[in-house]
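Notes from the 1:1 (GR / supervisor)

We went over the backlog. Supervisor wanted to see one worked example end to end before approving the batch request, so GR pasted a single chain during the call. The sequence is below; no edits were made to it. Supervisor asked that the structure be written out right there so they could see what the output format looks like.
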Amino acid sequence: MFYLAPTRTPQEFEALIEQTAKKDIDRTRFAVEQLTFASSDERSYPCVRTSYIVQDKAPQGMKNPLLLQTDALYCRHPKRPTTGFAISYSHRGESLDPSLGAEAQQFIAGAQVPE
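Structure output shown during the call:
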């Protein structure tokens, strides 16, 4: 959960999430290979679906870089307009996980916000 500034439209919300997420990536450690953002209507409240692949150039205890693959849903809390939350599913390894998308979808669909 995190503080979320007000927005008026789905486009503004998507831009806010994109700006925040990009700012949070430590570019000295991670090389971005793929980064996507898209407004989502899968919930009754504002959400943005994100997907990214970054190369961890300095994983602890490892000699070679690793890939970090993440699918996430960033949302505005339905009852608290200044609160955001994220549901994310990720994999870190030497190669990409081809089943991550399906597993992430199932995991994210199962996470619910208490009313």
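Supervisor's comment: The longest helix spans residues 10-24.
Batch request approved.
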